[in-house]
Each structure stands twice: as structure tokens, then as C-alpha cells.
Design a protein that fits this description.
Layout (H helix, E strand, L loop, with lengths): L11 E12 L15 H18 L3 E7 L2 H10 L7 E2 L22 E6 L2 E7 L9 E3 L3 E3 L7 E7 L2 E9 L22 H30 L6 E6 L7 H7 L3 H4 L9 E2 H4 L13 E3 L2 E3 L2 E5 L12 E9 L16 E8 L1
Parallel strand pairs: 1-2, 9-10
Antiparallel strand pairs: 1-16, 2-4, 3-4, 5-8, 6-7, 8-9, 10-14, 11-14, 12-13, 15-16
Helix pairs in contact: 1-2, 3-4
């Protein structure tokens, strides 16, 4: 059916992001200091995650902390998708995979996409643009993503839309270790802790800058819609998150709309953003939004080049009130309902 024959309601889609908290196949080690899942533990994790994500009822899921593509395929089937509608290249279990040799993610978890819409093209981001390279204290030049973001262009009712999902460096202190993983610093020294948190900030900022530069090349002087979502490991108005979005620059320079990204929750048209219920993570008992969903100007309802609008943004976070050991994910789910013109 051609695009002009679709009603607006027919051209509505839902997109969500969620951190799956070490989602791996049973009997495979993902971290040396953590036990592999048993068959029963895996089934419990799979069922728990499918229940959480089913609540969000989305057409596109951008997912973090995926160790095995096969596990994500199992989850997709439970959600009513086909196995072929899963893309997680850095976690591939295909023996012919050039990225993983079929072993799944190694060293750190990967990112994945489940989508009912056809993939036009995809790209895994690895090395930084030289403009984003930084010298991390006591460690040297930081040149590449620890968890490579995944950029996927989808055919959404005839409209190509690029979806970028990322999982940036956490705020946890980054202590120095030797090649065998042994500690080189005193973790109990508060002064050393400051230095270690400075390293984490430098790394997250460099990742944000590198991802920002990549997206500018897609956005600048085009009318191509883009959605950025994932675990950015900092709040919406933080320096690193705004380095990704540059929304504040639009206030002073309207031409920045061309390359800026907008917090979907703040531009939704159905109702105002409710900060008191909007949280996706509990940090030392305090609620915060560190899982972000940003859109390009093509989704501004009053935009000059508008192709659609963000109708509604919802947060699914009731499971975060449970004890940590009973959570299948330690992050909330953010979902946007978007309607194409």
C-alpha cells in the first residue's frame, strides 16, 4: 500500500528502550565474578523480561545489556515478533559472524534492536571521530566505544527513520587495573575515588561527543528523521546528555534545530510532562531519568519540516520498587507513541 493511502492512525508506531540487566543464554559466563544462569534461572529471566516489555507494547524495542542474540530472539518470540526481526550484531551467536565468531558479546554487553519494520541498513559504531578523542587521566587516549552504539535505518510505513541506541559509560568510578584485572589503586581512599570518577566522566563525555558527531552528519542539511534512545547513564539536563542533544542551543539560535535533538517527554502533545512519575533508575535510593528518548526536529508538531509528532511518552517503572534480587531489569522502560503525518 502506498504511503498516501495510510490514515494517520495507521501510521502510528510505538518505540521503547530498556536495559535488560545482563541478558545471556544459560551456561555461558559473561562476567568472571558472576555465575552463569541455570536453565531455570534463564527461563525465569526470559519470562520476567517478556512480561515487563509486553506492558510497553511497542513496535520497536532498543535494548541494552544483551550478551547473546539468540537470547534476544527468544525474547522477541515471546513478544510476538519473528526471530528474523532481531538485530544484535555484537552479540551474534552465528558461527559465521565476523564480529563475534558466534560466541556472543565478549567482555561487555552489547546492544540490540527488535523491530516489526524492515531494516534498510545498519551500522555498528566503534572508533571515535578524531575530534572526540580525549586523554583519560592515567590511562591514555580514549579512542573507541566500550559498548558500540547501534544505528539502524528502518522503513516505517514507507518513511525511512534512523534509530540509534546507545549505552554510555556509567558514573561508577573507573579504577586502574593491570592486565590480569588486579587492582592498582586503593578503592577505600576517597581522594583516589575522585580521580576514578573523573576518568568515568571523561570517558562518558568522549562517547557522547563521538556519537553526537556521527548524528550531526545524518541530520545536517537534511530532513531525515532520527530517534536516539538508550541508557545514557546521566540525567536529561546533564552536561554529557546535552552534549548529545544540544537542545538548549535552540533557544539562542533557531538554526540549531537542524541538528538538535529534543527530549520526547517534553514535546509530547497529549499531556504535560510529569516529573514526579518520570524516573527510570534508582541511584542510592533516589529516582532519576537516565534512560533517554530524543527525537530530531522532524517530530516537532510545529516544525518547519515536520513529518510527524510525539503523541505520548510513558514510563514503566513499578518493578523498580521490588528488592534488587527480584528485578529482571534494574532500569525502567521509556516508550514513545509517535504518529507520522
Amino acid at each position: 500500500m502506498s504511503q498516501r493511502h495510510h490514515s494517520n492512525q495507521d501510521k502510528e508506531f510505538k518505540i521503547a528502550t530498556s536495559n535488560l540487566l545482563n541478558f545471556a543464554l544459560p551456561h555461558r559466563t559473561f562476567y568472571d565474578n558472576m555465575d552463569a544462569y541455570t536453565d531455570d534461572q534463564y527461563q525465569r529471566k526470559l519470562n520476567g523480561l517478556s512480561e515487563l516489555l509486553r506492558n510497553a507494547g511497542s513496535d520497536i524495542y532498543a535494548l541494552q545489556e544483551v550478551w547473546d542474540e539468540q537470547a534476544l530472539q527468544d525474547l522477541a518470540v515471546k513478544l510476538g515478533f519473528e526471530r528474523s526481526q532481531v538485530l544484535a550484531p555484537m552479540a551474534s551467536n552465528d558461527p559465521s559472524s565476523q564480529l563475534t565468531q558466534g560466541k556472543g558479546a565478549q567482555g561487555t554487553p552489547a546492544l540490540g534492536i527488535i523491530s516489526k519494520f524492515e531494516v534498510i541498513e545498519w551500522q555498528q559504531l566503534t572508533d571515535f571521530d578524531p575530534l572526540a578523542v580525549v586523554d583519560v587521566p592515567d590511562q591514555g587516549l580514549y579512542r573507541a566505544f566500550n559498548r558500540p552504539p547501534l544505528s539502524v535505518t528502518l522503513d516505517v510505513y514507507g518513511q525511512p527513520i534512523t534509530v540509534v541506541t546507545a549505552h554510555l559509560k556509567s558514573k561508577r568510578p573507573h579504577y586502574l587495573r593491570d592486565e590480569q584485572g588486579n587492582r592498582l589503586e586503593d578503592y577505600d581512599d576517597p581522594r583516589v575515588r575522585v580521580r576514578a570518577k573523573l576518568r568515568s566522566l571523561c570517558m562518558r563525555a568522549a562517547e557522547a561527543a563521538a556519537l553526537r558527531i556521527f548524528m550531526i552528519d545524518i541530520l545536517r542539511n537534511t530532513n531525515h528523521p532520527l530517534i536516539l534512545l538508550g541508557d545514557m547513564n546521566d540525567v536529561t539536563d546533564s552536561v554529557t546528555t546535552q552534549l548529545l542533544a544540544e537542545t538548549s542551543e535552540v533557544i539562542y539560535d533557531k538554526t540549531m534545530r537542524d541538528v538538535a535533538l529534543f527530549d520526547a517527554a517534553r514535546i509530547q502533545t497529549s499531556y504535560g510532562w510529569m516529573r514526579d512519575v518520570a524516573y527510570t533508575h534508582l541511584y542510592q535510593g533516589m529516582p532519576e531519568v537516565i534512560d533517554q528518548l530524543f527525537v530530531s526536529e522532524e517530530f516537532l508538531v510545529d516544525g518547519k519540516f515536520s513529518l510527524g509528532e510525539v503523541k505520548q511518552v510513558d514510563y514503566f517503572n513499578d518493578h523498580l520498587k521490588k528488592e534488587y534480587d527480584n528485578r529482571f531489569s534494574d532500569h525502567g522502560i521509556v516508550r514513545a507513541k509517535i504518529e507520522l503525518s
